[in-house]
Amino acid sequence: KTESFYQEGVLSVAELTEVIDDYIHYYNHERISLNLKKLSPVGYRTRLEKAV
Fold it and tell me: Which residue among 5, 7, 25, 45 is least crowded, i.e. fewest CB within 10 A of its CB?
């Protein structure tokens, strides 16, 4: 999200890449979703694989 870029201030390309990578990791591994039974997207897929 653009909010994370503006909060950081002026960034170099390497720093911006690191911020983006951190956000993608958070979004896929740590963020919970009510639509996914209060699990992260990765946690939901992992649980779904074990059920099959």
Answer: 7
pTM of the model: 0.69
Distances (CA, A) of 29 to 2, 6, 8, 13, 44: 19, 23, 22, 24, 10
Interval 24-52: pLDDT, tens: 999 999 999 899 989 999 999 999 999 87
- Nearest-angstrom CA–CA distance, 48 and 52: 7
Domain range summary for the chain, segments of one domain joined by + = 2-51
